[in-house]
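$ fold --in a.seq
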Amino acid sequence: MCKNILFGAMEYLNYFSLIYWGIKLFLRKYNVETGRKGWVDNLIIIAVSAPVVWLCVKNYRFAVYSNMVTYILVIYIYLYVEISSKRRVEKLFTLVVIYINSMRLIDLLVVAVICEVNRVSRQDSLDFIHMGIPRSLFIFILIIIYFFIFYKISNGKLYEYLYENDFYRYFVSIYSFLGIICFCRVYRFGYEERLIQYWFFYLLFVFIVCGVFVFYLLRIKGEEQNRILNMRNNLMKAHYLELQKAYDENKILYHDFKNHILVLDQLIREQKNEEAIEYIESCVEMTSCLVNSVQSGCEIIDIIINRKIMEARDKEIKFFYHVEYIGQIAINDIDLCALLANLLDNAVEACEAVPDKKAWINLKILRKNDLLLIQLENSLSTNKSSKKHFFISDKIDKKLHGIGMKSIEKVIEKYDGYMEYKVSDKFEIFIYLSICE
């Protein structure tokens, strides 16, 4: 009787933990805000999940490692997150499949290893499959494993990599699903002596694919770093050429200064005041383009913004800015380049689609104690006035555009920052970064 109660309690905790941490993981990763307090959400998850847990436990009593349990868990977690988010959640189903299948495969793998150890040592075997104390203790260990995996995935990058890469996400979901079907059948109808060999080949293929995946990620990361370095070098080169051009034009202006004074003197003597004012204004306009617009005290900020101001003017985009004195900050040049250059590139690209020369960009950069505040606004064309489609690039090479957005997010995360954006008839984004040592 006590064994039955212990077994039932541990099985309930097993499925509750599997469901609870799965739901919490996907709600967090998809930034689902319910508006309720955390403990209320937890109680709702437990209460709503109770019938599903009961069904899974009852099913296990009649058919150990049933595939039906896997289907029930996948569908339930998918529907719960989908309903809670109140919107269509992209790529959720395959990610839920990977989560459930991975947790169940861990269960199956540990049981296979223990059974193989018992067989080789010829000791009394511990039954981790059927009802009993060994199975109950094993479930307790599984519950700890579920929490550990939840913690690692919540704070790691594996989820993001699978989310971004469709091929590997579909591959892992299908391959894990096939593993569940095959191994569950073996466990249900008796332990095979060659089971550990099956596991060896199954995991060997997984490690090979993971190695290829890691190589792919390293290559993508290298491409991103090279792109940022090339962007920074190009900006520095363009800035140097602009300074050289301004120096040459300053020499010409200085050479013509005497002639300008003579012309103004003659206009004033002839009391042609309006003509004199127009001439002065033309001289002021001519000299204003020779002076760097932004002087923040941070060289890389000045280089990037001044360059983008010139680019916007060449494309007939009005560029408004308010950049206070920033000084030296604890953000390296490469990260600043990745953040500002990509932000302004996206703004310029969006403005290029605005017709009738109505495009504009408004940039504000302030320093408040140990925070760097960046606010960027830009006009939008009518086909980009929705949050759903704003980040879809019109560039031919959409891959680079995606890398640019990832670079922005990585810099914000690296410096404990925050980003918030809004899309209406214009695009607004607000970013703050910690700039203390």
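$ fold --in b.seq
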Amino acid sequence: MPPPRRGGAVRADARHAGPSSDPAGAPVPAAATGAAASDLLLARVVREESARIVAALTASLGNLDLAEEAVADAVEEALREWRTRGIPPSPGGWLTQAARHNALDRMRRQKRYREKLALLAGAPSAGMAEIEERLPLLFGCCHPALSPDAQLALTLRAVVGLTTAQIARATLSTETAVQQRIVRAKRRIAETGIPLRIPEGAERAVRLDLVLTVVSVMYTSAHLVAGGDASADRDLADDALWLARVVADALPREAEAHGLLALLEFHRAREGARAVGGELVLLADQDRSRWDRQLVADARASLERAARLRHPGRWQLHAAIAACHADAQTSADTDWLQVLTLYDLLGARDPSPIVRLNRAVALAQVEGPEAALEEVDALASSLDGFHLWHAVRGRLLRDLGRTAEADLADSRAHELTANEAERRLLAARIAGEA
């Protein structure tokens, strides 16, 4: 079972406590008693059960909005009840039953509640954990009829359980904009009858790639904290890694699911070296002894599982590139020709400007900065508003001795990024200190 995340309404309360055990068998920090212990357990139950309950209620009622609100109310009730009356013998069952009661209460205020009431009353309450219901919900949230922004916002709300405020911070949006995206997405699902199901056949590959893209964007968003230091939003990064594991575990024959999991595990393994004292440390300068070797081993195992399925794809190629960096003892030991070859293969499947920009970084190591700069300049029309395009260009110009042009490029990158650690790094580069 995937590890618990600190989710939704209980995230702030559950993060300070550190081990006894809870009724569900998961360790609870020895210092966590009373309210702290119940909050920690609720955070775990929210992660493991909330999306499953939402999916089951939606399947019964045909109303995602109602299901999500019923579960959110149940979480709030649990936060109050468990603190005062203690943790129930079956926390997941308690939350399930509370959500079902909430759905009934809401439906009593609706005109057609009797028809739906019969459906809900007849739905089985046992055996919910036997069916991975998070996956149909995730595929529904990532339906191509929804915009990419709506897919991400709805996934973070319905599947991961974040609040509107948490989603706004993670996606660099306002709470109003996030709420509007979620409302529009739910309305679109209701109006068009978007099914909550796992697609089959050729449709699955396309839809699965959408799901994996949303999970990847979710992980990337954890590292785009406006105004923050270099440290990632650990909760959101862990949520993304957890969700990638859910998908890979539920779809063991899908190579690309294992490929994305491997990629995120490789990246998460570097986190302790990427952010040191709040400052951003680029890959070439990282102390690799700080990398999480267990996560690196997990990533290699995930990539090997994907390779055994003999169905290559872009997420596996991304992970293979990350593996090249993990294999090198130092930056100087990196097999850049292998990295460049993998980017060529990736470009054939995903010729996006971001992939081409990353390929140019590898090309600089193989053929030199002049050849790489030519590739980067060709992306100007696509990436002029992307701060990393200017930062890469600034580095190449600096390597070519074109300092004045490099300073202009780094200054533009400095203007475009909202992350303070990136701004400090770019300012130091302009000042000749990095």
